[in-house]
């Protein structure tokens, strides 16, 4: 294995780890399916030896990961709007989505206070 192969291999593993981390932020019912899809994508292309194709797959994977991350952030912002903020948890989805904590815990899951305020402003208009 030469240096180029080693670097590409490292990028593939990095993408896989990032994808699993992002999938861990998904609501519990979807986590398993997301992890399974990520693993299946990796397995489908496991024996690919074409460096150009591997680079393409990495860039495509990064784009998909970015979209998934943004979607999960939007979902978290939507859940925050229903959160009471008093430590009692999310009134909207307390039993189903995993966002059971206070407002501070919601914001730690990757959504910003600015996104929450913008969503609040849109809801109130």
TrEMBL record:
Q: Which InterPro entries match?
A: Complex1_LYR_dom (IPR008011), Complex1_LYR_LYRM2 (IPR045293)
Q: Which domain of life is it from?
A: Eukaryota
Q: Which UniProt keywords apply?
A: Mitochondrion, Transit peptide
**Which parts of the sequence belong to the Complex 1 LYR protein domain?**
11-66
Which Gene Ontology terms of cellular component type are present?
Answer: mitochondrion
Subcellular location per the Swiss-Prot or TrEMBL entry? Mitochondrion
Q: What does this protein do?
A: Involved in efficient integration of the N-module into mitochondrial respiratory chain complex I.
Hey, which family's this protein in? Belongs to the complex I LYR family.
What is the official name of this protein in its record? LYR motif-containing protein 2
This chain's source organism reads Pisum sativum (Garden pea)
């Amino acid at each position: 294995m030469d240096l180029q192969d080693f670097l590409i291999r490292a990028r593939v593993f990095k993408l896989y780890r990032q994808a699993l981390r992002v999938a861990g932020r998904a609501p519990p019912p979807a986590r398993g399916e997301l992890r399974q899809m990520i693993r299946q994508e990796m397995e489908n292309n496991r024996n690919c030896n074409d460096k150009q194709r591997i680079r393409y797959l990495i860039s495509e994977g990064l784009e998909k990961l970015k979209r998934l991350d943004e979607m999960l952030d939007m979902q978290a912002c939507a859940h925050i709007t229903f959160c009471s903020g008093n430590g009692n948890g999310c009134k909207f989805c307390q039993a189903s989505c995993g966002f059971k904590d206070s407002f501070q815990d919601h914001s730690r899951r990757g959504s910003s206070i600015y996104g929450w305020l913008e969503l609040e402003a849109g809801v109130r208009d």
